[in-house]
Design a protein that fits this description.
Elements (H helix, E strand, L loop, with lengths): L2 H11 L2 H13 L4 E2 H8 L3 H13 L3 E6 L2 E6 L1 H12 L7 H11 L4
Antiparallel strand pairs: 1-3, 2-3
Helix pairs in contact: 1-4, 2-4, 3-4
């Protein structure tokens, strides 16, 4: 991930509802959630939720899949790994063996 994409991801997560959506979808895992279920769970109007889902999708933090007439949303683990990798790529003052255990834990193949 480059700096511009990382900034877009941080910008997306800097809004409370979007942060809550992202965390909810991480928790939902591979089953994901529909936009309506996300709205209901967080108590957010559906048109507001739609805008927030769009921002998170454009930032590469969530993805969606169409299933018939409905759309399910999922945390984009590749995008999340990219962001975390960007944050940690220069850690430990050039001694990556010191932080490799942390990186391995974060960059798991969930």
């Amino acid at each position: 991930m480059d700096r511009i994409k990382a900034l877009a991801a941080f910008s997306a997560l800097s809004q409370p509802t979007r942060l809550d959506v992202f965390r909810l979808l991480v928790k939902a895992g591979e089953t994901g959630m529909s936009a309506g279920d996300i709205s209901d769970t967080l108590g957010v109007r559906q048109n507001t939720m739609s805008a927030n889902l769009s921002v998170l999708t454009q930032a590469g933090l969530i993805r969606n899949e169409r299933h018939g007439r409905s759309i399910r949303y999922y945390a984009d683990m590749d995008g999340t790994r990219g962001l975390l990798g960007f944050l940690l790529e220069d850690c430990c003052g050039g001694r990556p063996e010191h932080c490799q255990p942390i990186i391995n834990d974060i960059l798991c193949a969930c």
